[in-house]
Amino acid sequence: MDRENSPSALPSKPLLRTLHGEAQWPPPMWLMRQAGRYLPEFRAMRAKADFLTRCMTPDIATELTLQPIRRYDMDGAILFSDILILPWAMGQSLEFVEGKGPVLGAIRDRAALDRLDPGRVAEATAPVRETLSRLRRELPPQTTLLGFAGSPFTVACYMVEGSGSREFAITRQMALTEPALFDALMDKLTEATAEMLIGQVEAGAEAVMLFDSWAGLLPPSQFRRYVIAPTRRIVERLREAYPTLKIIGFPRLAGIMAAEYARETCVDALACDTSVDMTQMARMVPDDLTLQGNLDPLILQAGGEGMIREAQAIRDAMRGRPHIFNLGHGVVPQTPPEHVAALVQAVRDVS
Ligand code: 1CP
Questions:
Q1: Residue 99's domain spans which residues?
Q2: Number of domains within the chain
């Protein structure tokens, strides 16, 4: 365990301090998908290697993580990787197809589930840990390094469906009609996710984020079973290994269930999606819970005075409580890079 995770000293990095429950002014900021196609230097690297190779080559993944830090001096650097690296590392076939997104060999029965081998994950993800160690050496001293994973439900959606989807109907049907099979998949994923994240922290991640992008598809009873319960288990396992590790949870489009999620999973920070009124959410959660979010990525794409007003309104509404400024979902590829520069300036301008 390093100093930033030790219980005695409050860390000096602004984003980590906020995760420890201390309000900063102006708030620290980073953006989901801050490394991405909207940056010309990212598109240049894209020509050189396919997506999986970019994730699994420490030179490239380090460079892609650093690009938005160099340009915008973000307070957080998120590892360049993907939530689908875990199923791939367990042996599921994965390809990122241009114009279509991820394509996986769908898991629909016990035999396919049994072929997934969590024992392969540590070795298969060694390059990711190498990337994290390099980043810890190369990042500016005030920048916090974030590791991440998908939450089990969201990762299961892709594993069962075999691709992206609007409804993930096959996955949700499996949960309802073959609960033993779906539970076995969720249990396997929950343990493997915790193990992988412990490895990321060992390698240098200073905080971690759990992305549950499709949590909002579930009715409350299943939300408790497939979102809250596995997240809580992962938080427990991480805290056994690293008692003061800070964990951000993102139950996207969970609506009012997000408050219960924050309380029951014991995450340190709740990342709010675009639909959340942050002022209302602040009233529903403890004062020392960090809130992260939540400018609409399309407002960032549009830019201009309207963007500056919206961003400063979110920032000002959260003043006095621990808040990490971010978007409500990822930067879209059509975003002009100068809009991101204007956003950073607007959030940091407290004159
Ligand atoms: O070069 C390319 O065009 C590949 C596009 C790309 C990128 C840049 C994919 C494919 N993944 C990523 C990186 C990524 N993905 C990061 C790290 C970088 C950063 O944030 O700056 C992270 C945290 C993710 C997480 C991720 N992947 C999520 C959760 C967050 C969210 O966006 O909701 C999800 C759902 C994925 C799956 C995925 N990977 C890639 C795509 C296009 C998708 C979405 C597929 C779909 O459902 O349509």
A1: 3-348
A2: 1
Torsion angle, alpha carbons of 339, 345, 350, 351, to 10: -110
- Give the DSSP H/E element, type plus range, for residue 58: helix 58-72
Closest by CA position to 154, among listed 103, 231, 213, 204: 213
Residues with CB under 6 A from ligand 1: 32-37, 46, 51, 78, 80-84, 96, 101-102, 148, 164, 211, 213, 330
Hey, what long-range contacts does 215-218 have (CB within 8 A, 24 or more apart)? 215/151, 215/153, 215/154, 215/251, 215/252, 215/253, 215/254, 215/257, 215/261, 216/251, 216/252, 216/253, 216/254, 216/255, 216/273, 217/157, 217/167, 217/168, 217/172, 217/253, 218/153, 218/172
pLDDT of residue 98: 87
ipTM of the complex: 0.92
* pLDDT at residue 8 in the model: 53
Q: What CATH number is attached to the domain comprising 46?
A: 3.20.20.210
> 10-residue block means of pLDDT along the chain (351 residues)?
54 97 98 97 92 97 98 98 98 94 98 98 98 98 98 98 98 98 98 98 98 98 98 98 98 98 98 98 97 98 98 98 98 98 98 86
Which position among 72, 75, 134, 158 bears the catalytic label? Answer: 158
Amino acid at residue number 187: D
3-state helix vs strand vs coil in the chain, percent to 5: 55, 15, 35
